């Protein structure tokens, strides 16, 4: 059985705790540096244990697996260094209902939610979050720490940069590039490349 530590007890962390434990993974507990009382209450209602902050967490056996349940890609990047400083090892989780082509590559730390579909020759970087019912087309690259929110559709031969966010129900058309740290708003339609660090929204996205 795989033992797992989760960083983050907000909504995304609790979703990951629920998904992984339902598939037979033993969640040893959740680490969070500033949990709200409400999130702690909801975590305990799930039956999961709060282990404390990253500075106060108990000693965990080396090579124990971890996932980061935080939506912000830059925060996931920071927490990666903390987790690996504790000797933990990034886990890769794909929900049983996700459809992933046999030649797709998922780097450590990636989480794929229920109903997601990745077709063929897709490279997914470290600690990427692919939320429920996302579709990703052929020959696409998702950079490290990218986040693709629920029901977004990324067409074939696209590139999504490091720490970029593709909003819920948005569409990225064939061959488009979304730069590092860019944000695509919910329900936007990306018809041309999105510059690094920019925020676009609307149809077409501007």
UniProtKB/TrEMBL annotation:
Residues forming the catalytic site: 138
InterPro entries hit by this protein: AcTrfase_PglD-like, PglD_N, Trans_hexapeptide_repeat, Trimer_LpxA-like_sf
Pfam family, one: PglD_N
Domain PglD N-terminal, chain residue ranges per copy: 3-80
Residues at the site labelled Increases basicity of active site His: 139
Record-given protein name: PglD N-terminal domain-containing protein
């Amino acid at each position: 059985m795989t033992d797992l530590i989760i960083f983050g007890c907000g909504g995304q962390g609790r979703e990951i705790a629920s998904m992984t434990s339902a598939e037979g993974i033993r969640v040893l507990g959740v680490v969070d540096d500033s949990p709200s009382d409400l999130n702690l209450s909801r975590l305990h209602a799930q039956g999961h244990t709060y282990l404390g902050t990253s500075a106060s967490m108990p000693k965990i056996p080396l090579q124990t697996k971890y996932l980061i349940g935080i939506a912000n890609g830059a925060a996931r990047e920071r927490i990666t260094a903390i987790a690996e400083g504790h000797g933990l090892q990034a886990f890769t989780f794909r929900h049983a209902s996700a459809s992933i082509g046999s030649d797709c590559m998922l780097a450590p730390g990636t989480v794929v939610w229920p109903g997601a579909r990745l077709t063929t020759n897709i490279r997914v970087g470290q600690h990427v979050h692919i939320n429920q019912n996302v579709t990703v087309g052929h020959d696409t690259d998702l950079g490290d720490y990218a986040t693709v929110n629920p029901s977004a559709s990324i067409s074939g031969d696209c590139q999504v940069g490091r720490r970029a966010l593709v909003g819920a129900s948005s569409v990225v058309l064939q061959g488009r590039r979304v730069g590092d740290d860019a944000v695509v708003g919910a329900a936007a339609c990306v018809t041309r490349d999105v510059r690094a660090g920019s925020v676009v929204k609307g149809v077409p996205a501007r």
